[in-house]
Every structure is written in structure tokens, then in C-alpha cells.
Amino acid sequence: MTSLPTTYPTIRVTAMPADANPYGDIFGGWLMGQMDLAAGSVASHHAGGRAVTIAVEGMKFHRPVIVGDEVSVYATLVATGNTSMTIEVEAWRRGRHSDEAYKVTQARFVFVAIGEDRQPRRVAGMAG
């Protein structure tokens, strides 16, 4: 088992029945959406404004998430370019009545900072 991140999660949510297939497993798309929300929060904060997802790399599903699980999503900025940011994201599950947590998904999300015109702009704080 991989070690749980030592930082606070960017997002924490309970998986609900509406997010599941008929067998009670949470849809991968729902989980990916939660990861995108967490990565977007980190990207827009770092960029000092609007940022959009342009790529998701290396998406891996390690374990299922089931209805009632608490899902914690950890997002960490790992690289910054002139207009882009790469965020490493991990999602972890914890059963509703358990202390054990397991990594269920991981991926790298790439974002680009954009301006009012919806065109790429330099990341805030970048030398210009």
C-alpha cells in the first residue's frame, strides 16, 4: 500500500448512489471529474485567474470506489511553463466506518492559463 499524502486534500466528498452503476461501483467519469475539479482549483489559484484543462496523462484506476466511500482528492503543482501548469492528482477512498484509506486513482492534469479573450496567457507571476 502506498502512503497517504501528508497534505490536506484539495477536495473531500462522499460517493453517492447517483454517481454509481447498477452494481454500486462509482463511475470512473465521476471520479475523473472530481480530480479535474481539484486540479483546476490548484491551477487557477497558481495562475491568478482562469485556467483550463488541456490534457490528462497517465490515468490509472487501482481500486473501485463504492457508494458511501469518502473520497479525498490530493492535487499538487509539479511543473509550470510560460502558460501551462502540470498538476499531479491522487484520489483516495476510505470506507464510511473505517480508518483505512486506499489510493484508487492517479493522473497528471495539464492546464493552460487563459485571459478574458479565452486565449493562452502567461501564468501570473511569470517574468515577462
TrEMBL record:
Q: Which GO terms describe its biological process?
A: acyl-CoA metabolic process; fatty acid catabolic process
**A single MF term (Gene Ontology):** long-chain fatty acyl-CoA hydrolase activity
- State the GO CC annotations: cytosol
User: What single Pfam family name could you report for this chain, choosing any that match?
Assistant: 4HBT
The UniProt record lists the HotDog ACOT-type domain at 5-117
Q: Quick check: keyword Hydrolase in the entry?
A: yes
Alphabetically ordered keywords of this record: Hydrolase
Q: Which family does it belong to?
A: Belongs to the acyl coenzyme A hydrolase family.
User: This chain belongs to which protein, by name?
Assistant: Acyl-CoA thioesterase YciA
Q: Which organism is it from?
A: Sphingomonas gellani
